Amino acid sequence: MNFMRNIVLAFCAGILLSACQEDKPESFFGENTVVFYSNKPEEISQVKKEFYWAAALNPNAEYDTCWIDVAAVGNVLPYDRELKIVQDTAVGWDHIYDNAGNLVDSVSYVLPNQAEAGKHFVEFDNEGLKSFMKLPANSFQTLIPVVMKRDESVKKTLTLQIRLVDTPTTKVGEKRLSTCQITIE
């Protein structure tokens, strides 16, 4: 009987020991890139942000900042990675479906009321912003500023489409996550 009990105990100990092995993450062998980051699953096709002057710390201020998340894909690197963003034309999509509800075609159009550099936001190559436009050494994530300018003449919602572009120290990752659409109200 002791022999059978010892076999059962050895078997259970073997199962416990094999279950406790540490899973080590696999090494990353792809290209180290950066993308705009969002933790919202609905933003799988494009990262979106909303900026409301009414919700600003000082709603009557001439300037305010919309912070955009940028994340590394791949390995942490031991040096700062320069980031650069540019303005793109914001587009919308009309989808066409058949009678069964299947998507059969899409048509793009330029969104109205595009934000203008210098009028609605500070230009991205502004000297005062350069020190913020980097992913710091040994970091996976950072926030970069888009500085909004109040324009009292605008009484409608504006759209600002921005895109990450390659720099000498940084490659941009997946295309759909390299753009961010900011709605300004």
User: What is the tally of beta strands?
Assistant: 11
CATH topology category name: Immunoglobulin-like
CATH architecture: Sandwich
* Mean pLDDT across every amino acid position: 87
Number of helices: 1
Secondary structure blueprint with pairings:
Elements lengths: L1 H18 L13 E4 L10 E5 L11 E11 L7 E2 L1 E5 L2 E7 L5 E8 L23 E2 L5 E9 L8 E8 L13 E6 L1
Parallel strand pairs: 2-11
Antiparallel strand pairs: 1-3, 3-9, 4-8, 5-10, 6-7, 10-11
Descriptive report:
The strands form four sheets. Strands 2-11-10-5 form a four-stranded mixed sheet, with no helix packed on it. The chain has a three-stranded antiparallel sheet with strand order 1-3-9, with no helix packed on it. 19% of the residues are buried. It has one domain: CalX-beta domain (Immunoglobulin-like), CATH 2.60.40.2030. It contains one helix and eleven strands; from the N terminus they run αβββββββββββ. By secondary structure, the chain is mainly beta.
Properties at a glance:
185 residues, mainly beta, Immunoglobulin-like, four-stranded mixed sheet, three-stranded antiparallel sheet, 1 helix, 11 strands
Short account of what is shown:
By secondary structure, the protein is mainly β. 10% of the residues lie in helices and 36% in strands. The protein has a single domain, classed as CalX-beta domain (Immunoglobulin-like, Sandwich), CATH 2.60.40.
